[in-house]
Amino acid sequence: MSTALAVTDPLSLLYRLLFALPAATAISFMVYLAPVPTFYGICKKRTTEDFQAVPYVIAQLSAMLMFYYALVKTHSPLLLAINGIGCFIETVYIVLFLVFAPRKVRISTLKLLLLLNVVAYGIIVCSTLVLLKGSARVQLMGWINVGFSVSVFAAPLGVMRHVIRTRSAESIPFCLSCFLTVSAVAWFAYGFLIRDFYVAAPNVLGFLFGAAQIALYIFYRDAPRPREGHKVDPEKATADVVSQDGKLQAVKPDSMAAPGWGAEVEATIHV
């Protein structure tokens, strides 16, 4: 009986690895390529518009950490390959963003890159190499990657808030959101098949965040954007009224204010 289990379990695991992992890996590769239409538009318009670099910075850091995890774990060629490619692709996206972003956005993005992808990543790598060995190093990196997987999924929260505030879906990268949602489902299925809680659990959040972005895009894609207004100085603004003798008189807004409102009135002209 024990011999049968010893033979059956490896065969079952091999089946899972041959089908589930390649499927998840292929979808992950498509996730990396999903922002291509977004950056094609950025290059064509030569502006980043309302797009933010945070999701791409976090995605690059996640790929770097997973690449390091695959190195310390050893015998993980697929993880090395997909995350090595991911690091390169995310670097290209970030460089393009920096080229076409306004100066203020470029500076803030560079600060974020320095803080997370250089300082924080360097501290993690150096500390685990010096302080930990063997399975302890692999286990810690596994937990760190779980945390950053959640960060990748939560990174678009700022974009979602911006969409709700502006009532415009222009800043949602729709293709990326769709691929992230499908990828989360695939990696959850893989983690469930191999009974790995640390792989499956973060992708539940990934599916929820991805579905929320898609829902916001559908809801706000045809919504009219709020019109911008120009503030007018109350001291300079006037309103034409007809006096009792039939002559036009210019009356300042504070003289038309209702009792109890105070003298200060702000007028807005829509164009």
Automatic annotation (TrEMBL):
GO terms for molecular function: sugar transmembrane transporter activity. Mediates both low-affinity uptake and efflux of sugar across the plasma membrane. It comes from the Eukaryota. This is Bidirectional sugar transporter SWEET. It is a multi-pass membrane protein. Gene3D superfamilies: 1.20.1280.290. The keyword Chloroplast does not apply. GO terms for cellular component: plasma membrane. PANTHER family: BIDIRECTIONAL SUGAR TRANSPORTER SWEET11 (PTHR10791:SF22), RAG1-ACTIVATING PROTEIN 1 (PTHR10791). Belongs to the SWEET sugar transporter family. It holds the Pfam family MtN3_slv. Keywords: Cell membrane, Membrane, Repeat, Sugar transport, Transmembrane, Transmembrane helix, Transport. It is found in: Cell membrane. The chain crosses the membrane at residues 13-33, 53-72, 78-100, 112-132, 138-159, 171-193, 199-220.
